[in-house]
């Protein structure tokens, strides 16, 4: 899932998404241990999605916004 899509979700939705991703990671690890997982990159992608959600939740907790930084960079390029 893209970070842009995650930014649009509320904190409650992100908490639910995080819970779902952790459950999915548990199942993927179990499948990997029993050699039922065909694509091991799914594990890596799931871990990255969990990290993205945790990062967004932490940014909101600290009132940090990365969106204005990107907007300022675009304005700087336009000059």
Task: Characterise this structure.
- By secondary structure, the protein is mostly helical.
- It has a single domain, classed as Helix Hairpins, CATH 1.10.287.
- The protein has 4 helices and no strands.
- It is elongated.
Give a nutshell description of this structure.
The protein is mainly α. It contains 4 helices and no strands. The longest helix has 23 residues, at 11-33.
* Averaged pLDDT: 88
Oligomer: single chain
Q: What is the C-alpha radius of gyration, as a whole number of Å? A: 16 Å
Principal-axes shape call: elongated
Unreliable stretches (pLDDT < 50, length at least 5) are: none
Task: Set down the secondary structure blueprint.
Layout: H1 3-7, H2 11-33, H3 41-61, H4 67-78
Helix pairs in contact: 2-3
List key phrases describing it:
79 residues; Helix Hairpins; 4 helices; mainly alpha
């Amino acid at each position: 899932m893209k970070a842009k899509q995650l930014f649009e979700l509320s904190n409650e939705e992100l908490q639910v998404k995080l819970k779902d991703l952790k459950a999915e990671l548990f199942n993927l690890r179990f499948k990997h241990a029993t050699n039922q997982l065909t694509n091991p990159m799914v594990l890596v992608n799931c871990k990255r999605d969990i990290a993205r959600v945790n990062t967004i939740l932490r940014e909101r907790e600290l009132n940090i916004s990365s969106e204005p930084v990107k907007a300022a960079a675009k304005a700087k390029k336009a000059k």
